[in-house]
Amino acid sequence: MRLVYPTHKQERILEAWLVLCCETYNAALDERKSAYRMAGISLSYEDQCAELPGCKEVRPDLAKVPYQVLQDVVKRVDLAFDAFFQRVEEGKMPGFPRFKSRFRYHSLTFKQFGNSFKIHRQGKKNRGTLELARLGPVKMVMHRAIKGTPKTAIVKRTPTGKWFVSITVELRANDLQASRLPHTSEPVGIDVGLKTFAYLSTGEAIANPRFFREDETKLARAGRKLARAPKGTKERAHKRKVVARTHERIANRRKNFIEQEVSKLIARFGFLAVEALVVRNMVKNPNLAKSIADASWSMFFTRLQAKAEEAGRQVVRVNPAYTSQTCSACGHRQPMPLSVRVYECPQCGLVIHRDHNGSLNILEDGLHAVGRHSRVIPEAPGL
């Protein structure tokens, strides 16, 4: 994702496009609902795309928006219905597609490199230009070179008013091989937690930074000031941005932390075993929901898997059941309340940190899943 700096005029145009795209999205959604309710007809993506030229005759201002951007708006409606029907088939809570507020429609997709968007690198360090159809060149920060062939560009506005572009590229097999790290076969088991962010089977612990907890008081104070500001005033708009900046700072710090820790793990280990946690069910616990969301385990697992595939590493997800209650030395199982942080085995006498014991079991289960058997026993019992 790269930061872009549109001029004041370009920013007004982009914001106008977002409003028009939001209206198009809601109109397409309403048309699908009405067609099925009144005539029993299910409209497709192709059907609604064919109507776009006629929509431009009725709404001439739609002609100012690039055609491919409008096509993507219709595609988003189509994907929303595909996801809805998939959830119905899987027996999950469906969640029918909903209309979008113009304050919650934040991105524009330019689908074709060389046609709807182009990228130019300037001589200055970390500077470039993003050329968008019907908008012209926009200054862009090129913090790293683009590898591969660009395919799509998504221009996004954050709640704080910043603009970013996310560029999707296609990599050839040679590019993928070049990006892979030196081979290593060293394995590791990773047990995520709340006291520590993660405990490794090597005995090392990654501290939990608790970014949300750190700024929780500041966020609550900003939220109270926002609630007191009169609606529709400039003061309320300013207070809303203060709240958005606080949330953005927390999210950026959390993402930076996870990216750095994942990079360290991928560079060091060739085999990584993690728990197959269903985090969306765990956050239903009212006592731990805020702390679990602050730890952001889902983001950690997702980035670990993506980085591992890119670097040629192997990530195995194992069943998390009883990993903390089973002795990593002899296999004895005993109840372990969350308040007990030291595992003491009554059979073999092993005394070890609870999370360290869990990470050793996770590693063993991961090795077993790929056909490797190597029961890891600590050299010396202790904390």
Automatic annotation (TrEMBL):
Residues 297-362 form the Cas12f1-like TNB domain. Pfam families: Cas12f1-like_TNB (PF07282), HTH_OrfB_IS605 (PF12323), OrfB_IS605 (PF01385). GO terms for biological process: DNA recombination; transposition. Residues 4-37 form the Transposase putative helix-turn-helix domain. Residues 179-285 form the Probable transposase IS891/IS1136/IS1341 domain. Transmembrane segments: none annotated. InterPro entries: Cas12f1-like_TNB (IPR010095), RNA-guided_DNA_endo/Transpos (IPR051399), Transposase (IPR001959), Transposase_put_HTH (IPR021027). The keyword Zinc applies. One of its GO terms (molecular function) is DNA binding. Keywords: DNA recombination, DNA-binding, Metal-binding, Transposition, Zinc. The keyword Glycosyltransferase does not apply. In the C-terminal section; belongs to the transposase 35 family. This is Transposase, IS605 OrfB family. It comes from Ktedonobacter racemifer DSM 44963.
